[in-house]
Amino acid sequence: MATYTYPTFPYHPPHDLMRSAPQRKPLVIIGAGPVGLAAAIDARLQGRDVLLLDEDDSVSFGSRAVCYAKRALEILDRLGVGDAVVNKGVSWNVGRTFLREEEVYRFNLVPSAGHKRPGMINLQQYHLEEALVQRATELGADLRWKYKVVGVQPLADGARVSVETPDGAFDIEADWLIVADGARSNVRRQLGLDMDGQVFKDRFLIADVVMKADFPAERWFWFDPPFHPNQSVLLHKQSDNVWRIDFQLGWDADPEEEKKPENIMPRVKALLGDDRECTLEWASIYTFQCRRMARFRHGRLLFAGDAAHQVSPFGARGANSGLQDTDDLVWKLALVIQGQAPEALLDSYNDDRVYAADENIRNSTRSTDFITPKSAVSKLFRNAALELARSHPFARKLVNSGRLSVPAFLVHSALNTPDTDTFDGDMVPGAPLDDAPVCLPSAHGWTDAWLLDQLGNRFVLLAFADHAEAIDTTANTNADSHTSPHTALRDLRTQAAALAAAALPVHTLWVTAHAENAPGWATLHDRDGLLAQRLDARPGTCYLLRPDQHVVARWRTLDTAQLQAALARALGG
């Protein structure tokens, strides 16, 4: 059974960076994990030069982060690696929880019809990182391997970074510094920036096992299984016949002893219950941590991913929330660098992502408390819930083997414009926009596509019309009625033309209920009516979307003043 061959990325001597020290760069990123690489790719897509530094010259060793939720996959689509990741990963929707050998709870992540991506995929972190490295290289990001950051000095207008390489040490300055160097962040530690929260006194063993098994591609979680009594076990299928197994060990376990193959493989064999061929690819010991920095922005230093916040692995909230960090951060930073938004816009990065981190920490802590009770009374209640869940549906809602990652609804974001009209549904200001199937006009008729793929890295105004005629002409318009949908659409046409020529264009995207093209206007056909249904839209309804696809405002009818005010607010004005 083949195992993964870790790539080695080329080292480039720093002579070009040492010619005149310290050189000044507009954007430096520290850390080439998924978060740092995603930030580098997004910066290049936004037209920014970027220098990325990493002390290693390969991808992460071992599976590490393995579960990527639908929202993370949609972000990876925007970055240009979604297909590669989904095609390589193992899609799954069903999770099953067992008490001993009996199933007591089951969930299904299958979303409602009409979404491009599955609820969740499993993929070893090293595969994701390799795809991200390839994409960043294609886009011209300056990736420097074997560049170890040994010091960071904040400056009033940036930061000075001290770097060691095989060819010597040097300093470099950055207008902006994104710190994504992981949970053991040397930069955070060196600057004395603490993380507040809780470290849980329990140990878990991760074992990546290569084997051919006929288990379904589902998430299986056992409490007190006969093959590992009084503890819990989690099983996940990954790509290339690699299975991820997490064994709870208890706080008193000796980490060095437990990592030895001769102690791991008997546990694996006991789980499998047979003598099938299997080999150990990687093993590690970890403890739970649920904590975060007080602030993610420190002047021109911006912390993201595990460098800023940490959660337990049950729930898949670590890497998923890190990708959402960069999704929130980079468009704001690009606008600030371009002079199209004030630096204060970056305070909303801190506020939005601290809010999201607190939500993740809260859910992760609850899962951890259920999986590893801290007292005899807590364990008694936990076990009672599991026993009741066997035959009482109400108790199944109490079973918590890890509430899985969902995107944060940034309903308290300062960038949102509060509703003044009445809407139904979940697409409130601050919500990540739901996907939907659409059709695009082409020379040969209409082509099937997905809504989120049409939005790009820009502000978008979604404007709904019934027929293309309402976009093209003011025929049948009641000019005396200020509430007529066609009057609103006529006004929007005027705004769209003005916005197209503005310094910060807002791309107007017309959504029609009927498959009718409006020449000269960017038009989508709401193929199945799902988009209008999810957004509770009718002719004249408009949604303003951020570049990271979160809703910032929505109206039943819209005038220029409302749109300009909402845009100014979304830019931190």
What would your notes on this structure say?
The chain is α+β, with helices and mostly antiparallel strands and 573 residues long. Helices cover 30% and strands 27% of the residues. Strands 1, 2, 8, 9, 10, 11, 19 and 20 form an eight-stranded mixed beta sheet that branches. Strand 1 (23-30), helix 2 and strand 2 form a beta-alpha-beta unit. Helix 2 (34-45) packs parallel to helix 9 and helix 3 (70-79) runs parallel beside helix 9. The protein is globular and about 70 Å long. The termini are far apart. The model is unreliable at 473-484 (pLDDT under 50).
List keywords for this structure.
573 residues, globular, single chain, 28 strands, 7-stranded mixed beta sheet
Concise overview:
With 573 residues, the protein is α+β, with helices and mostly antiparallel strands.
Average pLDDT across residues? 90
Specify the number of helices. Answer: 16
Low-pLDDT regions: 473-484
Largest sheet: 8 strands, mixed
Strand content: 25-35%
Number of distinct beta strands: 28
Helix content: 25-40%
Radius of gyration: 25 Å
Q: Report how far apart the termini are.
A: 58 Å
Label the structural class.
Answer: alpha+beta
What is the general shape?
globular
Spell out the blueprint of helices and strands.
Layout: H1 15-18, E1 23-30, H2 34-45, E2 51-54, E3 67-69, H3 70-79, H4 82-88, E4 90-92, E5 94-99, E6 102-108, E7 120-122, H5 125-138, E8 142-145, E9 148-155, E10 158-165, E11 168-179, H6 186-190, E12 195-199, E13 204-211, E14 219-223, E15 232-237, E16 242-248, H7 255-258, H8 261-272, E17 278-286, E18 289-293, E19 297-298, E20 301-303, E21 309-310, H9 318-337, H10 345-371, H11 376-389, H12 393-396, E22 437-442, E23 445-450, E24 460-465, H13 469-472, H14 485-500, E25 507-512, E26 523-525, H15 530-535, E27 542-545, E28 551-555, H16 560-570
Parallel strand pairs: 1-2, 1-11, 2-8, 5-14, 11-20, 24-25, 25-26
Antiparallel strand pairs: 3-7, 4-7, 5-6, 9-10, 10-11, 12-18, 13-16, 13-17, 14-15, 15-16, 18-21, 19-20, 22-23, 24-27, 27-28
Helix pairs in contact: 2-5, 2-9, 3-4, 3-9, 9-10
